[in-house]
From TrEMBL:
<keyword id="KW-0238">DNA-binding</keyword>
<protein>
    <recommendedName>
        <fullName>Primosomal protein N' 3' DNA-binding domain-containing protein</fullName>
    </recommendedName>
</protein>
<dbReference type="InterPro" id="IPR041222">
    <property type="entry name" value="PriA_3primeBD"/>
</dbReference>
<keyword id="KW-0067">ATP-binding</keyword>
<dbReference type="GO" id="GO:0005524">
    <property type="term" value="F:ATP binding"/>
</dbReference>
<dbReference type="GO" id="GO:0006302">
    <property type="term" value="P:double-strand break repair"/>
</dbReference>
<dbReference type="InterPro" id="IPR027417">
    <property type="entry name" value="P-loop_NTPase"/>
</dbReference>
<dbReference type="GO" id="GO:0006270">
    <property type="term" value="P:DNA replication initiation"/>
</dbReference>
<dbReference type="InterPro" id="IPR042115">
    <property type="entry name" value="PriA_3primeBD_sf"/>
</dbReference>
<keyword id="KW-0547">Nucleotide-binding</keyword>
<dbReference type="GO" id="GO:0043138">
    <property type="term" value="F:3'-5' DNA helicase activity"/>
</dbReference>
<dbReference type="Pfam" id="PF17764">
    <property type="entry name" value="PriA_3primeBD"/>
</dbReference>
<dbReference type="GO" id="GO:0003677">
    <property type="term" value="F:DNA binding"/>
</dbReference>
<dbReference type="GO" id="GO:0006310">
    <property type="term" value="P:DNA recombination"/>
</dbReference>
<feature type="domain" description="Primosomal protein N' 3' DNA-binding">
    <location>
        <begin position="5"/>
        <end position="85"/>
    </location>
</feature>
C-alpha cells in the first residue's frame, strides 16, 4: 500500500508518496513520521492507494504517531486552503490532537436530554440550519440542549472560559462532553457534545448530527494570524458537506451570515426585556473639540455610590474625527458614512472606502475644521474628581482588576477584565462607529453587546450610556431600540453599493516582497494601494483565494496575506 503524506513543514504544501509497511494498520488522516531530505519530520496521511506496483521504489514510513483528522476534515482543509489562501498544513494542525492518540476508545453516549430547550433553535435545525438572534443576556444553554437532542453536536464559542462554563453545566445536566482541544480523543471516540473555541470548528465528532456557533459576531472566532479563517464560515461549509444543520446564534448577527439565512427573531417585548437600559447622551449642542468627556448624565452615574461604573474610552488606532468649526457638524464620508481625515493638500479622504472630496463642510459650507482629540492623558483623574471616589485604571496588560471598586476607567479591555458592573459608559462611541473599517458598525455593536452582558438586563438595574455627536447613527438607534436589526439594512446597502463582503471579496497583502507578489497575480482581481500595502479585490472568495495561492512569492520575502482582514 502507498501512503500520500503532507509533511508538517512550514512553507511546504506538497505531498510525497511512501510505502506502508506490510504489518501496519493505517487510516486516512493518521499522523506519521517520515524521512524527508535527510531529516525525520511529522506529517498527515492525506491519501491511501492499495496499488503496490511501485512500492519497492519508495521509502517506507518511519513511524505511525497516532490518530489524526478524519477524511471529512482533510477535504474541508483543502477547501479552506483556497478560501483563505493558506497552506493545508495550517488547517490540518487545527484539526489534530495536541498529544499523540494511539487508538480511540468506545463511544460514551448518555442518551440524556436536558431542559429547557429553545423552540427557535429547534425550528432552525429542523429546517436545515439558520440564524437565531438571541438577546445578549439570554442563557445559551437551551440552544445547545435543543441541538443535542438531534445527536452528537459540535458547539463553537468565542472563548475558552465560556466553553469551560458551558461544558460544566452540560455535564451537570447528564450529558457527556469533550472540551477541545484538550479532550480531542474523547471527541473522536464519541460523546454527546464537543465544545471549544474557534478550533472546535475542526474538531472530530463521531456521528455528527448538528453544529452550533455561539456569538457569531465575536471577532475571537476569526484567527488574527494568516490565514485569517473564520470559525463561522468553516462550520457552515462543514455542515453543508456533511449534511448536518448548523445553527448560528448571536445577539447581533453580521451582514455576512444574514446573507446566508434570514434570522429567527424573538418577540420585541422579550428581546427588549433582555437588554439593559440604553441612554443616548446627545452631545450635538456642545463644542465638539471640547476636551472634557464629562456630561451631566455621566457625572450622575459616577456620583451614585451604589452603582459600579465602567468608563470605556478607546483611542489607540481609532478614527481621527473632524468637526466643522462653524456649525460643529462631524465630518463624515458621503458614500459610506465613516469618519474622514484631512490630507496635507486640503482634501477630505475616507479611510474606509477611499472616497475624496474638497475640504468643505456639507452642512454649512465652512472650510475650517477641528481635529477632535479625546484628551485621555488625565482621564482617570478627571473621572475620579467628578465621582468623588477612587477610579481604577484598567488596561489589557495591566495588573488584575480589584474585585471591589466603584469606578473603572480603561479601553475595551475593561469589558473583559472587570468582574461586574451596574453601568457601562462609552465616553466617545463615535470613534468606534465612524472608524475607517467597513465592519465598524458591527464591531461597535459587539462592544455594546459585551457591555450589556456585563451590566445585565434593565429590570435588574443594568444601564449603558452612549455619549455621541451622531445620535441618528444606525448603531446608536439600534442599541437604543434594543433591536440590532435596525442597523442591518443601511449597512447592507452600503456594502452592496461598494462591493464589500459579502457582495465581493478582498484581501490585504503587506510586507517585504509584496510589490513583486502583487505584480504576479492574474487579471481576475483588481489591485489598489501602494508602498508595501495592497488591497486585492475580486467578485468571490474562491477565485480570490486561488489567485493569491497561484501568486509567485519572491525568494526571502516576508509576506502577510490576510483574506478579509478583521481590522
Amino acid at each position: 500500500m502507498i501512503a500520500r503524506v503532507l509533511p508538517n513543514v512550514s512553507g511546504l504544501d506538497k505531498t510525497f508518496d511512501f510505502e506502508v509497511p506490510a504489518d501496519w494498520t493505517l487510516a486516512l488522516g493518521d499522523l506519521v513520521r517520515i524521512e524527508l531530505h535527510g531529516r525525520r519530520v511529522g506529517g498527515w496521511v492525506v491519501g491511501l492507494d492499495p496499488d503496490d506496483a511501485h512500492v519497492g521504489e519508495l521509502k517506507p514510513l518511519a513511524k505511525r504517531t497516532g490518530c489524526g483528522p478524519s477524511a471529512e476534515i482533510i477535504e474541508l482543509a483543502e477547501w479552506a486552503a483556497i478560501r483563505w489562501a493558506g497552506r493545508r498544513r495550517h488547517f490540518l494542525h487545527a484539526g489534530s490532537p495536541r498529544r499523540a492518540v494511539v487508538a480511540l476508545g468506545s463511544p460514551r453516549r448518555s442518551g440524556a436530554t436536558i431542559s429547557p430547550h429553545s423552540p427557535a433553535t429547534e425550528r432552525v435545525l429542523n429546517e436545515g440550519g439558520g440564524v437565531v438572534r438571541l438577546p445578549p443576556t439570554s442563557d445559551p444553554l437551551p440552544v445547545i440542549a435543543s441541538a443535542a437532542r438531534l445527536g452528537p453536536t459540535v458547539v463553537i464559542v468565542a472563548s475558552v472560559e465560556t466553553a469551560s462554563v458551558l461544558a460544566g453545566r452540560l455535564r451537570h445536566g447528564g450529558l457527556t462532553v469533550a472540551q477541545v482541544p484538550d479532550e480531542w480523543a474523547a471527541a473522536a471516540s464519541g460523546v454527546d457534545v464537543v465544545i471549544g473555541g474557534r478550533l472546535a470548528a475542526w474538531s472530530p465528532c463521531r456521528d455528527l448530527a448538528a453544529i452550533v456557533v455561539l456569538d457569531e459576531h465575536d471577532e475571537a472566532l476569526r484567527d488574527e494570524s494568516s490565514p485569517t479563517w473564520h470559525a463561522r464560515d468553516v462550520a457552515i461549509e462543514r455542515g453543508r458537506r456533511q449534511g448536518v444543520p448548523v445553527a448560528v446564534v448571536s445577539p447581533c448577527p453580521t451582514v455576512d451570515v444574514l446573507e446566508w439565512r434570514s434570522p429567527v427573531v424573538p418577540p420585541p417585548e422579550r428581546e427588549g426585556r433582555a437588554w439593559p437600559v440604553v441612554e443616548v447622551v446627545d452631545r450635538t449642542g456642545e463644542e465638539p473639540w471640547k476636551r472634557s468627556l464629562m456630561t451631566s448624565a455621566l457625572i450622575a452615574e459616577l456620583r451614585d455610590s451604589e452603582r459600579t461604573v465602567v468608563c470605556v474610552s478607546n483611542t489607540t488606532g481609532r478614527a481621527r474625527v473632524l468637526a466643522c468649526r462653524s456649525c460643529r457638524d462631524l465630518t463624515r464620508c458621503e458614500v459610506c458614512d465613516a469618519a474622514v481625515g484631512l490630507d496635507d493638500d486640503d482634501t477630505l479622504r475616507c479611510g474606509r472606502c477611499g472616497a475624496q472630496r474638497p475640504a468643505v463642510c456639507q452642512a454649512c459650507g465652512g472650510t475650517r475644521f477641528a481635529n477632535l482629540r479625546p484628551g485621555v492623558t488625565r482621564l482617570r483623574e478627571e473621572i475620579e474628581a467628578a465621582a468623588g471616589r477612587p477610579a481604577v485604571l484598567v488596561t489589557a496588560k495591566g495588573p488584575q482588576c480589584p474585585p471591589v471598586a466603584g469606578v473603572y476607567v480603561g479601553t475595551e479591555a475593561a469589558l473583559h477584565r472587570v468582574p461586574a458592573a451596574s453601568t457601562v459608559a462609552f465616553l466617545d462611541i463615535d470613534r468606534e462607529i465612524l472608524a475607517p473599517r467597513y465592519r465598524a458598525g458591527e464591531q461597535a455593536m459587539a462592544l455594546i453587546v459585551r457591555a450589556a452582558r456585563l451590566v445585565g438586563p434593565g429590570y435588574r438595574g443594568g444601564k449603558i450610556l452612549l455619549q455621541t455627536f451622531v445620535p441618528d447613527h444606525d448603531v446608536i438607534r439600534a442599541a437604543a431600540a434594543a433591536d440590532p436589526g435596525v442597523m442591518v439594512g443601511p449597512d447592507r446597502e452600503r456594502r452592496q453599493m461598494l462591493g464589500l463582503p459579502p457582495f465581493g471579496a478582498y484581501a490585504e497583502v503587506s510586507g517585504a516582497g509584496s510589490e513583486e507578489f502583487v505584480a504576479s497575480l492574474s487579471g481576475d482581481v483588481r489591485i489598489g494601494g501602494s508602498e508595501g500595502r495592497y488591497l486585492i479585490r475580486c467578485d468571490d472568495w474562491m477565485t480570490l483565494g486561488q489567485v493569491l495561492r497561484d501568486g509567485v512569492r519572491p525568494s526571502g520575502s516576508r509576506l502577510r496575506v490576510a483574506v478579509d482582514p478583521p481590522r
